[in-house]
Amino acid sequence: MKVKRNTLLLACFVWSAAAFNILRIGLMAYPSYLFVQNYLLSILVFMVFRIFIFGKLVKKHTARINAYQEERQFFLKFFDGKTFAIMAVMMAGGIGLRVSGLAPERFIAVFYTGLGVSLLLAGMLFGRNYGKAVLAATVQDKAARKEE
């Protein structure tokens, strides 16, 4: 099952779906912890993930996808193997923390909210990159037709 190379940038839907679920869990836990220090901690979590993880991953995967020579690619190539492994470990760790009760609800509220917003922004950036790629391809097609 192959898709156009730029279609891989629609990984924005995968990221956004995960973000929505994580953010939902965080926000459901937040009502008991509506304090300034918790808001600041959520912002800190957001910034750390945005700057050091998701921002870099969006750039890395967009560059990798754009560098593919063949126009059609296997639909799961929006991530590389390492990223799929990281995603699986993060999901298993998050589920494990919640189910085991090792993480207090305050942690879930603060951490999941910051993580969810950061992940949602990453999904939106993938969507923006898809839009840019489609626009560039359209402009290139029009220029090629004009030359003919």
Compile the SSE list and pairings.
Blueprint: E1 2-4, H1 12-29, H2 36-67, E2 72-74, H3 81-100, H4 105-147
Offer a few descriptive terms.
two-stranded antiparallel sheet; mainly alpha; single chain; elongated; 148 residues; 76% helix
Domain count, please report it.
1
Number of helices: 4
CA radius of gyration: 18 Å
Mean pLDDT: 86
DSSP helix fraction: over 70%
Structural class: mainly alpha
Low-confidence stretches: none
Biggest pleated-sheet summary: 2 strands, antiparallel
Quote the distance from N terminus to C terminus.
32 Å
Strand content is under 5%
Strand order of the largest sheet: 1-2
Task: Report on the architecture of this protein.
The structure is a single chain. The protein is built from 4 helices and 2 strands; from the N terminus they run βααβαα. Helices cover 76% and strands 4% of the residues. Helix 1 runs antiparallel to helix 4 (105-147) and helix 2 (36-67) packs parallel to helix 4 (105-147). The chain has one domain (2-140). By secondary structure, the protein is mainly α. The chain has a two-stranded antiparallel ribbon with strand order 1-2.
